[in-house]
Amino acid sequence: MRKVIIIGAGLAGCYLATQLQDTCDVTIVTKKSPKDSNSMLAQGGIAASLDPGDSPAEHAADTLTAGQYHNKPAAVNQLVATGPKLIQQLIKAGMAFDRQADGQLDFGLEGAHSHHRVLHANGDRTGAALTSFVQSQLHRVQWQSNTTALALKVQDDVCVGITVRNERTGQLETLTGDAVVLATGGLGNLFPLTTNNQTITGDGIAIAARAGAAISDMAFVQFHPTLLTLHGQCYGLITEAIRGSGAILVDENNHRIMANVAKRDLAPRDVVARHLKAWQQQGHQLFLDISAIPNFTQRFPGVTENLDNHHVPFRTTNRIPIQPGAHFVMGGITTDLSAQTSIPRLFAIGEVACNGVHGANRLASNSLLDCLVSAEKAAEKIQALQPLTIRPTATTNKPAVKPILPTLTDLQDKAWQYLGVVRTRTGLRTFLDWLAQFNYRQLTPEQLSDNELAIANLCLCANLIANAALAEPKSLGAHYIKEPAAKKQVG
Ligand SMILES: Cc1cc2nc3c(=O)[nH]c(=O)nc-3n(C[C@H](O)[C@H](O)[C@H](O)COP(=O)(O)OP(=O)(O)OC[C@H]3O[C@@H](n4cnc5c(N)ncnc54)[C@H](O)[C@@H]3O)c2cc1C
């Protein structure tokens, strides 16, 4: 039986495991518990052109428009063509998406979708409902929870395994397999405010980059305009669907911030995030005014519960305190349409991967769908692999290097200042100069504490973002640069 090691227990990793568990010996390694992932937090929904009036071609067109045509058309076509089939299979297996009174699937409309095509489950708790359902289908996998993946084991340029460390015992172990799959999600915790789960620290991208795998599109990080923010801390996402239902962005004086912008409060996320940041820099506070939404608490039960948990008096004020923050990374480990990376037998799926589907900006509700599609394609490829023969190798103890790293807070503050919603070439260079004083590239992951490792991984990702942003000739999608590119010298 082929042995497959999957790193990450979000939707991508768990869905892949469902596809492989009958034919392969599958181990899922995850940093904390199976509940710790961005997939569990997804609120908005999952897009699929299943409504009779809709079509994969229209879904593809919306995806390409949102991605500013920076997408790989073949990846987009694969997403929109395969996605509906996988959703139907999930429904057949018992996944309960929300339905209308007549029993028909209830398709929601979201920003930049030209059709009602976004499925929800349990209202605004789609990610938790879907990921838990997929996890409930896992019967033949081994779990290694509270275990952090550190570094790839590569023999003759082929990935043969991965070193992991159990958080509780500190024990290091090398897991070998016929395929290793990185499904570790994005890098939201590079920024001081993020919607992401605390385990999401760019690990997969850093692990792959250290082993020399190709990485692409790192300039494109999506910032979400509305993070519930109290005393400078983010306490979760306030879904865009609330603005879709009539909520508006205001300041402390009830001034409507997006009044003079095309599409107003429903302008693209990057446009809204930039306006909010500019307004905030002028000393204003930011709120989402929900007074126009009837039955708010019934329509948004997940958001309501979160607001109540944090004692936000929205029932009396009709306001939710928000700020923009990091949400999603379009770039990542370069893969082909089968999730194969540039290192043989190393695969990447879900948010950690860059198969080109999202282009320069992700269309809302496409990432959960990409988790399913990229996992299904990886499963097909892995099942066709020949078994691997692994040579025994002696472990070499590398000399210890004392880590010189920034504090997480310093790194996050600098990342927000220089890699955030508005960038300048001067700022990107200043950031890289600042980063150059640290030795994150010389460090051996096995020799670092969990905290040092997370910081080193985020430094590596920050370096990739800054360099990719400098290499972009102009603003595109989520990458916004203020200064023009320097003119090329002639002669
Ligand atoms: C608040 C929020 C709302 C969202 N809403 C939507 C939405 O409505 N629709 C949509 O399509 N998308 C949405 N997204 C984006 C979407 O949820 C994610 O892109 C997607 O779930 C990523 O899935 P994944 O399986 O690739 O990674 P994740 O779900 O992030 O899972 C990554 C897993 O890897 C583990 N891990 C990380 N590093 C290591 C390591 N070194 N060793 C071991 N394990 C590790 C993590 O703990 C986690 O279990 C939302 C995201 C957030 C944060």
UniProtKB/TrEMBL annotation:
Coiled-coil regions, chain positions: none
Enzyme Commission number, as recorded: 1.4.3.16
InterPro entries: FAD-dep_OxRdtase_2_FAD-bd, FAD/NAD-bd_sf, Fum_R/Succ_DH_flav-like_C_sf, NadB, Succ_DH/fumarate_Rdtase_cat_sf
Pathway assigned to this chain's UniProt record: Cofactor biosynthesis; NAD(+) biosynthesis; iminoaspartate from L-aspartate (oxidase route): step 1/1
Keyword RNA-binding in annotation: no
Annotated signal sequence range: none
Catalysed reactions, semicolon-separated: L-aspartate + O2 = iminosuccinate + H2O2
Domain FAD-dependent oxidoreductase 2 FAD-binding, residue spans: 4-368
A biological-process GO annotation: 'de novo' NAD+ biosynthetic process from L-aspartate
Cellular localisation: Cytoplasm
A GO molecular-function descriptor: L-aspartate oxidase activity
SUPFAM superfamilies per record: FAD/NAD(P)-binding domain, Succinate dehydrogenase/fumarate reductase flavoprotein C-terminal domain, Succinate dehydrogenase/fumarate reductase flavoprotein, catalytic domain
Any GO CC annotation of this UniProt entry: cytoplasm
Enzyme's top EC category: oxidoreductase
Keyword Flavoprotein attributed: yes
Keyword annotations: FAD, Flavoprotein, Oxidoreductase, Pyridine nucleotide biosynthesis
One Pfam family in the UniProt entry: FAD_binding_2
Top-level division of the source organism's lineage: Bacteria
Protein family according to the UniProt entry: Belongs to the FAD-dependent oxidoreductase 2 family. NadB subfamily.
Protein name in the entry: L-aspartate oxidase
Organism this protein belongs to: Lentilactobacillus farraginis DSM 18382 = JCM 14108
